[in-house]
Write a structure and sequence with these properties.
Elements: E1 29-36, E2 44-46, E3 61-70, E4 78-85, E5 88-97, E6 100-108, E7 117-122, E8 134-138, E9 141-149, E10 157-164, E11 186-194, E12 197-204, E13 216-225
Antiparallel strand pairs: 1-3, 2-3, 4-5, 5-6, 6-7, 8-9, 9-10, 11-12, 12-13
């Protein structure tokens, strides 16, 4: 698998092996592992002598098939994230676009990927191997987050969140959960549901404007309810 050098606006310059290193490209295909029953014609893996390996007793044989599925992402894409979706799976990723880069999503229904939908596009994304866009599915409601650079230094970036109540056909305007306005780090977002609401939790560096200031963990509910899109 090859890698590509990303332009500065899409790459955190911290050294490799630490938060901020560049991410390899999205594989050209996704392998779906499907368990196969004993005695079939599929290739098998002999686990004889491996007591308890992968949950199989010593002397047993287990196998699987691997189906290659073409990726919906464009060449040069990266940072894939998968989220379960009622018998299928949603994937988000970033890829080059005429406007710089875009955040896109697609759903795999067990047979094929849907046409990719663009969530956001521009030249100011902040992405690295540990902190990248994610997608979550709550019934018909999709929620995607990404990070956007500010204008006051390498680690001035904030969170943007958008949602779709129609499985990605249309999207809300980007929304920012933090309102401190400081040129500091805001990232490592986790999206979750609580009592019919979607919440975002993140690491917040607003206090780091003062040397030695602490990083904090903050959370806030989004201005959209899960029930607005038909529930979970």
């Amino acid at each position: 698998m090859t890698t590509a050098t990303k332009p500065p606006h899409l790459e955190d310059p911290r050294p490799n092996g630490r938060p901020g290193a560049a991410t390899p490209l999205l594989p050209a295909a996704i392998l779906c592992l499907v368990a196969c029953g004993p005695g079939g014609e599929d290739a098998t893996a002999d686990r004889s002598g491996e007591a308890g390996a992968a949950g199989f007793p010593a002397g047993s044989t287990a196998g699987f098939t691997a189906d290659e599925i073409a990726s919906p992402a464009a060449p040069g894409s990266g940072q894939p994230f998968l989220a379960p979706a009622g018998g299928g799976v949603w994937m988000s990723w970033t890829e080059p676009s005429p406007g710089g880069h875009r955040v896109a999503v697609s759903r795999y229904d067990g047979h094929s990927w849907s046409s990719p939908a663009t969530v956001a596009e521009g030249d100011g994304f902040f992405v690295n191997w540990a902190d990248f866009p994610t997608v979550r599915s709550y019934g018909e409601l999709l929620v995607v987050h990404w990070l956007q650079r500010g204008g006051q230094g390498t680690y001035d970036y904030g969170i943007r969140i958008a949602w779709s109540a129609d499985r990605g056909a249309t999207w809300s305007a980007p929304w920012t959960p933090h309102e401190d306005g400081t040129p500091t780090e805001h990232g490592f977002v986790s999206l979750f549901e609580r009592d019919g609401e979607v919440w975002a939790a993140w690491l917040d560096g607003r206090a780091m404007t003062v040397p030695g200031g602490p990083m904090s963990v903050r959370a806030r509910s989004l201005p959209v309810a899960v029930s607005a899109a038909g529930g979970t």
